[in-house]
Amino acid sequence: MRTLMAGLFYSVDGVVESPNLWQFDSFDDELGAGMNQMMARVDTGIMGRVGYEQWVSYWPSAADDADFGTFINKLPKFVASRTLSGDLGWQNSSLMDAPLEEFVASLKEGDGGDIAVFASISLTRQLLFAGLLDSLMLMVHPVVAGSGRRLFEDGDPVTRLELQDSQRTSKGNMVLSYRLRP
To answer: What strands lie across the sheet with 4-11, from one edge to the other?
Structure first.
């Protein structure tokens, strides 16, 4: 069975939205190395419509400027959307042909490397609370973002996690890897 993972930049006050506004000055070599390790294991991506629309306006033309651009452009990407249709126009991107949880469960049963959720707070939440997310990595930056969407909200179900790994980086980030507790 394939592993489904999600990794989010996370402020001390729990903000995960628009990390480009607050994480840039604490991104360090250790975080870069961790991203490279993740890219070596992942061979399939899952995105929501909003994240897809944000990334498609940047990454297809950024391939020459960033290792991540080369990686994400070549990666098969499945997009969950109720409003998009037809050809998505970004290399190796297609719409999911079944409801999210059903599609992901089927994808996990197939052959291949790890599957990663990219650029989607909503999908990460839905897959975590559905019990389909195998690994949740929070890259906690030493910053209070002050505002923005948080991963967890009032009224979320009690969900037990088990810490699998932790690392402190040279710029004071904490990389925390969790799995659902059985």
So the answer is: 93-95, 77-80, 42-48, 114-118, 4-11, 135-141, 174-180, 161-168
Cβ proximity of 97 and 78 under 8 Å? no
Query: How would CATH label the architecture of 4-180?
Result: 3-Layer(aba) Sandwich (3.40)
21: helix, strand or coil: helix
- Token pair recorded at residue 64: 């020459």
Query: Is 121 within 8 Å of 151 (Cβ atoms)?
Result: yes
Amino acid at 55: W
- How far is it, in rounded angstroms, from Cα 110 to Cα 1? 7
Query: Tokens standing for 29?
Result: 């070599």
pLDDT, tens digit (0-9, with 9 covering 90-100), for 121-168: 999 999 999 999 999 999 999 999 999 999 999 999 999 999 999 999
**Using CA atoms, how far apart are residues 47 and 77, in angstroms rounded to an integer?**
7
Phi, psi values for residue 98, rounded to 5°: -155, 165
Is 53:44 a contact under the CB 8 Å cutoff? no
Q: How far apart are CA 7 and CA 31, in angstroms?
A: 11
Work out the burial of residue 101: count CB atoms within 10 Å of its CB; fewer than 13 is exposed, 13-18 middle, 19 or more buried.
Answer: middle
Q: At what angle do helices 67-74 and 29-41 cross, to 10 degrees?
A: 20
Q: Are 9 and 16 in contact (CB under 8 A)?
A: yes
